[in-house]
Amino acid sequence: MCTMIAASTAVTGAGKAGDRWFPLTRATVGYDHATHSEEEHALLLDFTNYEVGVDARVALELDLASGRALVAQLQQAIAAAEVGATKNPRKSVDFRGLVSGVSVSD
To answer: In which band, very low, low, confident or very high, does the pLDDT at 103 lie, cut at 50, 70 and 90?
Structure first.
């Protein structure tokens, strides 16, 4: 069964496919049939810049638990950056606990 779950947003960043880096302009997130992972359904993440070419794409297929863990790590990294962790780039920061309601296991 197709879920038809998909959302897309503009992004600014860079991605690497093969041996080349390219600017990213769009991120699409969905949940549907997996193509390459062993899951029947997976979270599908596509980071693209089709103005560069159709091969300017970084794709991920994650199970739901991995997706939750990734979201939690992203939220914690963003929270740490917002409280000034970037002031000393050589300092390692343990940012667990800065985001309420997020549980991350090592």
So the answer is: very low
Q: Is residue 104 part of a domain?
A: no
30 and 53 belong to one structural domain = yes
- Please check whether residues 85 and 46 belong to one and the same domain: no
Question: 86 and 72, same structural domain?
Answer: yes
Q: Which domain holds residue 92?
A: 64-99
Query: Which amino acid, one-letter code, is at 103?
Result: S
For residues 45 and 77, state if they share a domain: no
Alpha-carbon span 35 to 87, nearest angstrom? 41
Which pLDDT score is estimated for 84?
A: 81
pTM: 0.74
On the 0-12 / 13-18 / 19+ scale of CB atoms within 10 A, 15 is buried
Give me the amino acid identity at 85. Answer: A
